[in-house]
Write a structure and sequence with these properties.
about 130 residues, mainly alpha, 4 helices
Length: about 130
């Protein structure tokens, strides 16, 4: 084998090695991009799940608060603090019809409180809209 042939063989071997390294690098970069794309898709669902969990937690807290006020009102039906709290919690829960009863009791117990009368009228309007 002549010097020229050996040199050509060396160049061919070098080209094959470079080609193999290039193919491996290209395949690695493509697979990294694919993995990154799929991980972003799963991350996009996380904020939605967090919002749903937060909303569920708020509903549970409101429900627990409501139960606490109802327990107090069983012992003391005219407890104005409990009536006011129950109405406020039901308004936060958007339970307009449920908020009417405690507000009516508050207005009956305190006919001079215009703020409760106004709130009762507004809640009745909202309850009728649904």
């Amino acid at each position: 084998m002549s010097y020229e042939e050996k040199r050509a063989q060396g160049r061919d071997r070098f080209r094959r090695i470079i080609t193999l390294i290039s193919l491996i690098s290209f395949g690695g970069s493509i697979s990294t991009g694919i993995v990154h794309t799929f991980s972003q898709a799963s991350d996009a669902d996380k904020p939605i799940q967090a919002v749903q969990q937060t909303e569920q937690l708020r509903r549970q807290q409101f429900s627990a608060e409501e139960q606490g006020y109802l327990i107090v009102l069983k012992r003391e039906p005219n407890n104005q603090v409990a009536l006011d709290g129950l109405a406020a919690v039901r308004i936060k829960m958007h339970d307009w019809k449920g908020a009417i009863e405690p507000l009516e009791k508050l207005v009956a117990l305190n006919p001079g409180r215009e703020d409760w009368k106004t709130l009762l009228e507004n809640i009745k309007r909202r309850a009728n809209q649904k």
